[in-house]
Amino acid sequence: MHQLVSLSDIQQAARRIRPVARVTPLLDLSLSLPPGCACAPLLVKCENLQPGGAFKIRGAYNMLSRLGEDERRRGVVTYSSGNHGQSLALAAHLLGIRALVVMPTTAPPVKVAGAKRYGAEVVFEGTTTLHRKARAETEAAARGLTIVPPFDHPWIIEGQGTIGLEILDQCPEVDTVYVQVSGGGLIAGVAAAIKHVKPAARIIGVEPAGAAKMSASLAAGAPVTLPATASVADGLMAVRPGDLTFAHVQALVDEVVTIEDEATLDALRWLFRDAKLVVEPSGAITVAAALSGVARTGTGPAVAVLSGGNVAPEAFAKYVGSGE
Question: Could you say which of 75, 155, 281, 319 has the lowest number of CB atoms within 10 Å?
Fold first, then answer.
């Protein structure tokens, strides 16, 4: 039986990360909604404005700041499709810790460059989370490094959960929260924070139709591994949820829905055109779910987490231009 992170854990993480992670804006986009849109008043939590361009700085900095002096001296390693790697590199730089990031061979160059810019060593391995994890474990054993997982660790989850605390502070009347699902660290933390304080609020997980690992796992009653994933949302391509994150989702999340790539890109274009926000596909997928009405919501405000904005200019121009 997995122990879920507590509200106290998340509150302590919020104090720990305060010097680094921004309290990001919660913007009301209700007046910009497309004509005829039936979704509740819609607000967006702008984690694309974090240092490193994504929410991941919260969990990465929280975990690194909890390491002992010997662990910091020896250095750390992680495995990441991009945003966690960048954020770990930034957190390690701020704390004076040597960092190694294992990325997929398909990682977007903008995310690789981000990790290197903060001083991390980057190596490439395979195309799935499992490939990267195995390489990180090998490197950790050979070099004496501490592994900082991208999602399946209580210190990572409690760091990501600080987003939930901010949503409750900024919008106490929140009715529904849409949260991205990849390995599950983000939704596990947000759900833990919000359900402890406001259990009636609905937590809706959102994942790409081509990478529906949490939906498959919930149906099976245990974490399952997909044979492959494919989506424009490159940050949500994990083939398997974590054991601890799955336990949180199973206990605390009301519903998990899937979204097709074209709906995600429609949402990305809408956010750019009507809200003037640059968001990567993985960040826009929650807005796609809100606009589509695919999940049941109440009449109160809905919040969609914009998890990141790390997208190459040429790719973003292509996404935006393809809707013209």
Answer: 75
Do 7-50+155-321 and 57-153 share a fold? Answer: yes
Mean pLDDT by 10 residues, the chain (324 residues): 93 97 96 76 96 95 97 94 89 96 88 89 88 93 96 97 98 97 97 97 97 98 95 93 97 98 96 95 97 83 96 92 71
7-17 helix and 185-197 helix, angle to the nearest 10 degrees: 120
Find how far residue 188's CA is from the centre of its chain: 10
Residue found under tokens 């990360």 = 17
> In terms of pTM, does the model score above 0.85?
yes
In degrees, rounded to 5, the angle at the alpha carbon of residue 241 between the alpha carbons of residues 238 and 247 is 165
57-153 is a CATH 3.40.50.1100 domain: yes
What residues are annotated to the active site?
56, 81
Distance CA 4, CA 207 (A): 22
d(C-alpha 181, C-alpha 256), whole Å: 8
At residue 213, the 3 state secondary structure works out as helix
| Tokens found for residue 173 | 């009347």
